[in-house]
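Much of our argument rests on the idea that a fold can be written as discrete symbols. This step matters because it turns folding into a mapping between discrete strings. The record that follows shows the chain in one-letter code together with its fold in token form.
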Amino acid sequence: MTGKRFLPHSPGAWISTAAGAALVLVAWLVVILWPDASYPAMKADCDRSELFVAGGTDVSLKNQRRALIRQWNEGLRPDGSPHPHATLVEVSESTDLQHSQIKAVQESGSCAYDVLITDNTWTAQFVDAGYLRPLDGIDDLDDFFPAALRTGEWDGEQYAVPFNVDVGLLYYREGAALPTAWQGLLSSDVAMQLADYEGLTVNALESVWNDGGAGRLTGEDRPSEDELRSKVYPALTRLAPRARGSLAASRQYGELQSIEAFASGTRLMRNWPYAFSALASEPRMRDGARLRFGVTALPGRTVLGGQNLAVSRHSPNPGDAADLVEFLSGTSSQRLLFSCGGFAPGRYSALGLSPGHHSPADVKVPACSTLTGEPPGPGEVELPTEAQLGQLGRAVVTALGRAEPRPVTPHYSTFTGTFRGCVQKIFDRAGTDAEAFAQAVGRSLDGRTASC
């Protein structure tokens, strides 16, 4: 089909963890046998001034992460000397592969990476394993959204700062009726992400949290096995008939597939902020500069996703790496990523807000051409416009007020693999009972292999 421009996004572009051991092996082979001589750091060349930033494939609109690295390379230090050259190493579109390779490189003690772009669920594991340096001297920490900033903390110390935030949003086609409660959303014509990858964990957690009286499975407060048995498990069993009925198609959807379903006619969609710019650039979803869809906050609590910036413990240039983190997480960089790239920022100031006293109505962001000084070419329409970005920004700020982190544990990868495996069995009526569910999920939070 023509006109498709959609790209997968890191918070959910995960592949099945069934091949987890194989991924780690592949990552180790990449570290040991990297064939590209143009990347000397992978060959343990630690006597260097160049900085290497490791993260997922740049799926921002028009590759704005790469543009920020170019800005850094063209910039100067306060003393007038040039910045050390930085290179963006795009590991993979798959978050599982990103995690496996970056973890393998850090575990080997290699100096290959200086700055790490990490999923916000990795902080506990990476700090616990000694992969990260504490971040000191980052300006205006109060300007970051507090919940997003906390995802970079561990044991009272800051190890990472937000690069972009993610919250679940509700996209709707023109004329669609908006549900006011979660159960109404589940019974609507909605595209969600229920395929066997991290998106299933995210969507299932949101349903558990919005079930009404369901036990918490979020943050550092670990649920008891009784809570898993008596509250979380029943919430998932109430979701299961929807997964076999009105949400059956969503069991095949990741972010990419749900965007395509929405563009092809589905009335509603749950997705991340980046989908707004992807849809705005899709000819089927606009009439000139007018968009045929809108966005608002989900009718309930949502997962707080996003990616953070951290300095590798093994960087040979930690001071320069910290300066690069400060540049990439600064207001101007975050504003560019939002207006031009579609990534929601981690700072109030990037949305024209001040910490403390503000409302979603106060959001004000410039269009991309205003920031870059490069207006659209002849016959081109600038999308999103300032007004459209304002709608997205208001939805993000509203959703942030309802956002919850996924379970905070050094063993998150074990938890999410176990949890979504159990959810699949509950959906499939595969014989998993409350006791097996509670024991398996409880064990996974301690890093012990388990299944339902």
